């Protein structure tokens, strides 16, 4: 999910965390780091037989006669759990019973630092973030990543010309809820695990922040469309943000390859103490070395200027660090314990996105006081938002499916006007242009980086 640059008005869901626990998980960053300048059972063999059966095959009765022991012919499931269905609807905990979730791509840091066990004040400042990367942290993140991989695999199989955006969005949403085992209908359930932000399905010149809404005109995927699919999965607030682009017409392949290569460059350069201005320059150089021929005209692929990749905090998709796709003057750097969404957008247009008409979603701004809120409908709606979404961005259809939520528009207008809730509109380039996007989440662990969302597809 792309973040707008600090020169624009919107920055994703502002605000702190929904509780003290979340606040402690997201410690403030120092100015030098964050400011812009400008499994089988052990006692059984593969057939499920006891070891004693293998050794003897029979046992002596008390009178000396031999009595054959009955063999248990029931095979054990080799995976220790169920197999995934199509569409994916089997909860991941049932599939990975007694097994660990798969790792992401483990990559050694390019620059080896022999003093990885930091003994300076820098270690103390980041001790909270690093110590947070324990077994529970990794289990949550790897579960969320595996949910993303399985759901997007199915989404890729049905994202073909003729499908409606509503159907595709519902399949992704339902898949995430089913695999995490949290439908999000009871108060607080969606905060345990589920969707981290509205599923983005952006066509052609729409770069980011578009999702289908009830009552709007249905949009059908066409043969010549370029579709960006951007969705997030969280487990206990640990957010995996990953996106990909599909295009049925192979004429767009160079555009997709340019952006995929640029994202992989960003992932390669990411690491502890990496300077973001250097990463941005490398991304731009790779992306803008490509060109695409459309309608007989050769067009350079340009890096989008005013949206960025970003770091991720617990229950908060956009942190205080940004990774632009163009060379930028900034003192920001990546640090041990950071989690980044490395994403890039390439365009055949002006490569500058503007707000369009429409509604993508809403996000709670906990920095704004609610003392002046007087409307009962607004207070009731805010309570519902805090109980079900906290600081996670949500779509209208996520809110409207909750029991008892109806006629909320006046209350929402009051919350938005007061700045307590922020609204997000689609971001578009000039008509007739095409944009592609690829994105992965990377964990900057103390001794390696883990591209947690990496899969066989991209």
Automatic annotation (TrEMBL):
Swiss-Prot/TrEMBL keywords: Aminopeptidase, Cytoplasm, Hydrolase, Metal-binding, Protease
Binding site for substrate: 209, 318
Xref: Gene3D superfamilies: Creatinase/methionine aminopeptidase superfamily (3.90.230.10), Winged helix-like DNA-binding domain superfamily/Winged helix DNA-binding domain (1.10.10.10)
CDD domains, A to Z: MetAP2 (cd01088)
Cofactor: Co(2+); Zn(2+); Mn(2+); Fe(2+)
Location in the cell: Cytoplasm
GO molecular function: initiator methionyl aminopeptidase activity; metal ion binding; metalloaminopeptidase activity
InterPro entries: Creatinase/aminopeptidase-like (IPR036005), Met_Aminopeptidase_Type2 (IPR050247), Pept_M24 (IPR000994), Pept_M24A_MAP2 (IPR002468), Pept_M24A_MAP2_BS (IPR018349), WH-like_DNA-bd_sf (IPR036388), WH_DNA-bd_sf (IPR036390)
Record-listed E.C. numbers: 3.4.11.18
Function (record text): Cotranslationally removes the N-terminal methionine from nascent proteins. The N-terminal methionine is often cleaved when the second residue in the primary sequence is small and uncharged (Met-Ala-, Cys, Gly, Pro, Ser, Thr, or Val).
The protein, known as: Methionine aminopeptidase 2
The organism's taxonomic lineage, starting at the top: Eukaryota, Fungi, Dikarya, Ascomycota, Pezizomycotina
């Amino acid at each position: 999910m792309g973040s707008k640059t600090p020169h624009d008005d919107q920055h994703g869901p502002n605000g702190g965390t929904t509780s003290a626990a979340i606040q402690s998980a997201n410690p403030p960053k120092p100015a030098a780091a964050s400011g812009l300048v400008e499994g089988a059972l052990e006692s059984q063999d593969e057939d499920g037989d006891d070891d004693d059966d293998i050794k003897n095959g029979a046992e002596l009765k008390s009178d000396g006669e031999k009595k054959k022991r009955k063999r248990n012919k029931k095979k054990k499931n080799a995976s220790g759990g169920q197999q995934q269905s199509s569409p994916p609807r089997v909860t991941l905990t049932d599939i990975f019973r007694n097994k660990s979730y798969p790792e992401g791509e483990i990559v050694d840091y390019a620059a080896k630092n022999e003093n990885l066990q930091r003994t300076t004040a820098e270690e103390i400042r980041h001790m909270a973030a690093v110590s947070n990367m324990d077994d529970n942290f990794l289990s949550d993140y790897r579960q969320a990543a595996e949910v993303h991989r399985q759901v997007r695999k199915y989404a890729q199989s049905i994202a073909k010309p003729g499908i409606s955006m509503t159907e595709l969005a519902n399949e992704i949403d339902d898949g995430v809820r089913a695999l995490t085992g949290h439908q999000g209908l009871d108060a607080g359930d969606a905060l345990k695990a589920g969707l981290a932000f509205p599923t983005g399905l952006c066509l052609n010149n729409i770069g980011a922040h578009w999702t289908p809404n009830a009552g709007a005109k249905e949009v059908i995927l066409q043969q010549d469309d370029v579709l960006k699919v951007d969705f997030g999965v969280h487990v206990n607030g640990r957010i995996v943000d990953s996106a990909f682009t599909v295009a049925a017409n192979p004429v767009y392949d160079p555009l997709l390859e340019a952006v995929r290569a640029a994202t992989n460059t960003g992932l390669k350069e990411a690491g502890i103490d990496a300077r973001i201005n250097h990463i941005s320059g490398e991304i731009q150089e790779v992306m803008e070395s490509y060109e695409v021929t459309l309608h007989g005209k050769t067009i350079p692929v340009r890096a989008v200027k005013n949206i960025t990749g970003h770091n991720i905090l617990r229950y908060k998709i956009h942190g205080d660090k940004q990774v632009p796709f163009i060379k930028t003057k900034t003192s920001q750097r990546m640090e041990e314990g950071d989690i980044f969404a490395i994403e890039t957008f390439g365009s055949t247009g002006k490569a500058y996105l503007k707000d369009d008409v429409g509604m993508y979603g809403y996000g709670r701004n906990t920095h704004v006081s609610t003392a002046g809120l007087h409307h009962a409908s607004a207070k009731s709606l805010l309570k519902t938002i805090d109980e079900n979404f906290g600081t996670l961005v949500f779509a209208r259809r996520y809110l409207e499916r909750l029991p008892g939520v109806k006629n909320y528009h006046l209350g929402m207008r009051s919350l938005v006007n007061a700045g307590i809730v922020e609204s997000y509109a689609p971001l578009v380039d000039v008509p007739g242009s095409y944009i592609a996007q690829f994105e992965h989440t990377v964990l900057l662990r103390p001794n390696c980086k883990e591209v947690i969302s990496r899969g066989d597809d991209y």
